[in-house]
Structures are given as structure tokens and as C-alpha cells.
Amino acid sequence: xxxxxxxxxxxxxxxxxxxxxxxxxxxxxxxxxxxxxxxxxxxxxxxxxxxxxxxxxxxxxxxxxxxxxxxxxxxxxxxxxxxxxxxxxxxxxxxxxxxxxxxxxxxxxxxxxxxxxxxxxxxxxxxxxxxxxxxxxxxxxxxxxxxxxxxxxxxxxxxxxxxxxxxxxxxxxxxxxxxxxxxxxxxxxxxxxxxxxxxxxxxxxxxxxxxxxxxxxxxxxxxxxxxxxxxxxxxxxxxxxxxxxxxxxxxxxxxxxxxxxxxxxxxxxxxxxxxxxxxxxxxxxxxxxxxxxxxxxxxxxxxxxxxxxxxxxxxxxxxxxxxxxxxxxxxxxxxxxxxxxxxxxxxxxxxxx
Length: 353
Prior knowledge:
Largest sheet: 5 strands, antiparallel
Number of domains: 2
Strand order of the largest sheet: 3-4-5-7-6
Structural class: alpha+beta
Order of helices and strands: EEHEEEHEEEHHEEHHHEEEEHHHH
Number of helices: 11
Number of strands: 14
Helix content: 40-55%
Distance between the termini: 73 Å
């Protein structure tokens, strides 16, 4: 008797998918006969399913959040595939019809390497491995930014192309910061007016730094090691996959520098944060007033997380009695101190402003 499962209960979000549904999705792109399916257990939304077929290994990316998500991800996957050496899933095959599952999906090749989102896997790495991985992340980010643009741009679904931002980059950044504050205040009382004033003081202190000209480059906008795969080579570790391109745009590449150090600081690995930054800055020397922008960009991502935590308190990962400043300021100070330390110990020549 055939013991292969006919149904796969993957998650509460996706529910149960039948073998026939998955096979029909594979047939749509001539991807072989299904052998097995399992949820990739990382990410907030459980969108990704690993599929094994007789022709290879794939990832099924399920149920877009917005109509533009998968076309946008395909656009940037193509851009990085054609213009850089960054390892991204390609081809990125989008099916907009909901006739198989009741929602749209993507089929893409599975990339090799360990998933850095897996904390248990990261825990097996030696200190030397961690340093090598951090340097590899800095190198792949610098590679991502080898393709350049003319002005900051974002994806437009109707045109399936990049169009200029409606505002300047500095205005866009400041509006995002303020929007996070407004939204957070609408969900709880943990963002008092005095903390808003503190954020505004940092914004005002970074105005000159934000005005320093830059050449637009691809910005991942969620450039964290949770969105990467890595593999060991004879010469050290390399990043073998960069995924989750939903929030990409063309803008100031320095904004992608903040999440990795912030995560390393959270894991008490400031030496890895420094190794990442140092490697990147060796390839992409900092512009004037770098540290002011680094502080503001770090603050932005902390506020994005803060707003999400106020909106979804059941997922909150910090002490709910803290106010915004009580939570944010220690992390901000420690993360920025790592960047400051580089200017003291090597040739980065960072400016505190």
C-alpha cells in the first residue's frame, strides 16, 4: 500500500494542502513530481514551503500580503540576478491566479546552505565561524550595491518598473519615523510625549547628515541574517542566498547597515557586528556624517519593531512595562557604539558630527 501522505497540514495560516494541489502547482511550471513538502519554520507569517521533487528542490512562497508583493520580489530578484553576483532565487516564477489554492504563489529554486534564521544552527558555529559569516554578510551587501541608480526609486505595480519617490529621501525617512510614533501611540500609552520629543531631537540632529548626497543603490530594507543562507567554503564562509525581497527599493545603501549590527548586539556578539561593518566599509567608504545617519537609521528600525509590538502585544519580545525610550535607548546606544569604535581602531575615519 502506498504510504505517502496525500495531505500536508503545514500551518494554521496555510491550513492543509493536498498532494494534488501541490502537484498541480509544480505542473504549472514543469517542476517535476512531488516527493515531499514541509513548512520552512522561520519568518513571522509562515509563507514558505520546501518542496522536494524528482527534479530538484524548490520553495513555494504562498499567499502574498499585497497584490504587488510577488511581482515586486520578482522584479528585484531579476535586477540582482542580472546586475550583481548576489545569490538570489532565480527564476522567480509568479502565479497570480488563485485557482489552485485560493491564493497566489511563487515557485523558486531552493538555495543551498544553512538558514541563518535558525538559532539552533547559529549556536553550533564557532567564534571563528561567526566572524567569517559576519564578514561574508558585509561582503554580500557591498556586492548588492554595485549596481547604481539615478534617483531614489520604488516599485510601481502598474508599470512593473521603478518610479521616483514622491518626496525626497530625507523627507521619506522622517515621515516613516513619525508614522511609527503615531501608530504606536494609537495602540498603547507606552509612547509618551516626552519620548516623542526625544525622537524628534534625534531627527533634528541628523538633518545635515541626511542631506549629504548619495548615489542610489538597491536597498533590501530587511537586510538581516534571518533572510540569508550561508555555506562553508575552502576560503571561509560565503552567503549563498539572500531572500525576502518584499521591501526593496533604490535608495541610500547605508540604511541596510543597521539591522545586522543590531541583531548581533542583541545576541551579545559586538565583535561580529564590528566585523560586518568593517568589511562593508572597506568596500564602500562612508560618506561624511556617517554616524549621525547610522544612528537615525538604527532608530527607524527600532521604531518599526516598537510599533509592531504595540500593535501585536501578544508577540511582544520585551518587557511590556517599558516606555519607548526605556526600551530603545540602550539598544541604540550600544549599536551605535560599535560603529563609533571602528573609527578609533582602523582606517574607517567615521565622523561623529
